[in-house]
Design brief:
single chain, 379 residues, alpha/beta, eleven-stranded mixed beta sheet, seven-stranded mixed beta barrel, 10 helices, 20 strands, 22% helix
Length: 379
């Protein structure tokens, strides 16, 4: 499908403007402007619920090279508000392509812009921090556009789990004979569902508003805490549920789930200046010294037990919680932020990154095997 290009611009809440050519749906797209460093995975990114209410800047210049396919969906729809690119491509001739990238964005009603100096934009975000922004046609006055941007709620304090959670309980892998895992679905990615089901698990997805009794009603063998969007500090009702089930069954969390379990054992969370998003983040296992290249997508992080925002030691940090001893087990080597938690007196562990990495590095896939081995051993 051929579209007549229209000039447009991205306007940030601090008044900074980046011009380009509009190439998506003909509508404004306003949200928190964040960047991702992945060289591939553009379809997975925009359909990841963790990108809800965000405008994604792709740092890699060429986006759309291999088209769109149904197998690359991470949820049932696009969650990103808009897309910003240096050089957008609308190819349909890749071996797995079912549709062109830009055609698909238009069909989904998602605005996009190409021709933007994304290197300068990313450098600005790294300096000034993630902030609200939006895409607008060139004929929209900047003053009017800025009013629209400032009317968008800031990410800090937002409960977005309620916007992406399912309305009812669903069961995946029902024909498997492995452990039954009850998951709090705060925006789970389909690649996580596949990673567990392919290993023989039965996965029961619950709305984020589920109660402890509802979560444990089917006598699951373990509890899983999923990824998702928004501020973990706005999810105290989920934290209370998590706190009530810790120790009753093995508990494992990824990304937002990591943050929620950490809050449940008394740690605080904070907003990162510009977040961690991409497929090239080095994380060190403080027990083994092993370094893994990980896929990440989060704008908030966990503070250390002493309240510090960095973990300077290269060995596990241990302390006592209400559910027994715990230790910080992994650290991000970019900024020394917390990347993992292990409970020592009850089965439980978390990682801030994405072991399933769809697409991305496979360094951490073993964590799903380790989790299910722990579940079977506890049964």
């Amino acid at each position: 499908m051929t579209e007549t290009p229209h000039a447009g611009y991205l306007l940030l809440e601090d008044g900074t403007r980046f011009d380009g050519v509009l190439c998506g749906a003909e509508t404004d797209g306003v949200g928190e402007v964040v960047f991702t460093t992945g060289m591939s995975g553009y379809q997975e990114s925009v359909t990841d619920p963790s990108f809800a209410r965000q405008v994604i800047v792709f740092k890699y210049p060429h986006i759309g090279n291999y088209g769109i396919s149904g197998s690359a969906m991470e949820s049932d729809r696009v969650h990103a508000r808009a897309v910003v690119m240096r050089s957008a491509v609308n190819r349909e001739d890749a071996p797995t392509a079912e549709l062109g990238w830009l055609d698909w964005l238009r069909d989904c009603g998602i605005p996009a812009i190409s021709g933007v100096d994304t290197r300068a934009l990313v450098r600005h975000i790294r300096t000034a921090g993630s902030m609200r922004g939006g895409l607008f046609p060139a004929d929209v006055p900047p003053a009017s556009a800025l009013d629209t941007v400032l009317a968008e709620p800031a990410m800090r304090g937002l409960d977005l789990a309620r916007e992406v959670t399912p309305e009812r309980v669903t069961l995946h892998g029902e024909h498997n004979d492995g452990p039954l895992i009850a998951a709090i679905d705060t925006g789970i990615m389909l690649s996580i569902v596949r990673s567990l089901v392919e290993r023989g698990a039965r996965l029961e997805l619950h709305p984020c508003t589920t109660t402890p009794d509802e979560l444990l009603a089917s006598s699951p063998d373990a509890v899983f805490l999923a990824n998702g969007p928004g501020d973990p500090a706005a999810l105290d009702y989920v934290v209370e549920t998590v706190r009530a089930v810790i120790g009753k069954q093995p508990t494992f969390g990824i990304c937002l789930g990591h943050q929620l379990l950490c809050r449940a054992v008394g740690l605080e969370t904070f907003k990162l200046p510009f977040g961690h998003r991409g497929a090239n983040h080095p994380v060190k296992d403080l027990r083994t010294g092993r370094i893994e290249i990980t896929s990440q997508n989060h704008g908030f992080a966990v503070a250390a037990p002493d309240g510090g925002l960095r973990v300077e030691r290269d060995e596990p940090v241990r302390w006592e919680t209400e559910v027994g001893a715990a230790e910080l087990s992994h650290v991000n080597l970019y900024d020394r932020t917390v990347e993992g938690l292990t409970l020592l007196d009850t089965p439980g562990a978390t990682v801030q990154y994405h072991p399933e990495a769809g697409p991305g590095p496979n360094d951490s896939l073993y964590l799903f095997d380790r989790f299910l081995d722990q579940v079977r051993a506890h049964a």
